[in-house]
Write a structure and sequence with these properties.
- The structure is a single chain.
- It is built from 14 helices and eleven strands.
- It is an alpha/beta fold.
- The protein has two domains: about 60 residues; about 260 residues, 3-Layer(aba) Sandwich (Aspartate Aminotransferase, domain 2).
- The model has no long low-confidence stretch (mean pLDDT about 95).
- Bound molecules: pyridoxal-5'-phosphate.
- One of its GO terms (molecular function) is aromatic-L-amino-acid decarboxylase activity.
Amino acid sequence: MSELRGLLAEVAARVADYRESVAEAPVFPDDTAGVREKLGALPETPAPPADVVRRLADAVEPALVASTGPRYFGFVTGGALDAATAADMLATGWDQPAFNMATSPAAAIVEEVAGEWLKDLLGLPPTASFGFVTGGQGANTVGLAAARHHVLAQAGWDVERRGLPGAPPLRVIAGEERHATIDRSLRLLGLGTDAVEPVRANAQGAIDVADLERVLDGPAIVCLQAGNVNSGAFDDFAAAIRIAHEHGAWVHVDGAFGLWAAASPAFRPLMAGVERADSWAVDGHKWLNVPYDSGYAFCAHPESHRAAMSMTAAYLTGQGDGGMRAPGDFVPESSRRARGFATWAAIGELGRTGIAEMVDRCCALARRFAERLEAIEGVTVVNDVVLNQVLVSFGAETDRVVEAVQRSGECWMGATTWHGQRLMRISLSNWTTTAADVDRGVAAVQAAWAAVASKG
Ligand SMILES: *Cc1c(COP(=O)(O)O)cnc(C)c1O
């Protein structure tokens, strides 16, 4: 066996060992203190690749978080599917810069095929353009950049050429419970966070459509949300988009995880009308369970999407692309990872029915978690569990219970503040999680709650 072959076989075996044992590993590492020391000082001389990689893996494996495993309920975190993981390993080995047909026809064609599949699965318009980005943050930035172009172009201003100084004012209207990445995207786009005119949220964290109607007055960018990052709530898309469009506004939907509910026949009716928005942001690495980094920006106005993102340079003309789309024209990067391979493989592994089943199963497990926790005295679930998110109160002891659960290594979930209350936040987003994992999670929470309560 050649040295390279041996190295890659060893790494593949190591990845398999990790993934096959991750379900029983402590979910959070107890001791990360030794990692720096094991990584050592800056090497002065070359070393055999296998030694380098072995040292790296030995050093960091004890510090890994088992977030790809079945009892990681923190943030909104998927665990990569097997085919998607392997395809991403191929993407690394093939090392393709997925910029255009000249740099990698394979990457460009796979992105085109997978992008069409994604639109079909999510019920988005077949004519929408798409870009494969780093995640929800990247997708929100692309969607809002297209929006910025479009709304200002309608006001007679070419923002790509002239920038923002002297531009007509651009209103941004967003729910008060928007995800923090919306604000960062607005910062990056030069609009600034003060540009946001917040709209009230209802008791479940969805946008208050009456308040939106009150705020709207002509062209603007309206940010809606599919899946509140705390409660999982959806905005009322049919009503909100109709009102926004009556005012000539652009509607961007942040659906980082929640838009995947549109891939389930059971949930799609809850999101009726979402397909009439102007741009959408979706993650691959959350609910589709593709490895990091993976997200998708879709746009109902391909010319605005392209105008906001495309790159032109003398060396890019006449590359014989046969009219094919250049993936690099729809994202803010040029040399970039070939993200289509892992997405294509994830969709291939699950198929349309498998994706719907994964969404339905995660949501059913969220309801199971909520029901079992509510049966425990002194424990309250504070949100309507409409999707995969559960918010739990232990009164004044919430933070201490969350910390005790985290220390247990049995499972991991974080804390949040929602509507003025400290809460445990549980997310079910991983394809490997079973009812037995939920029950182990419930037992860990119950034990932590009992221990905290007994100490008073
Ligand atoms: C996670 C999330 C984002 C950001 O996505 P990243 O993939 O972390 O960049 C944006 N919006 C919502 C609602 C999210 O849950």
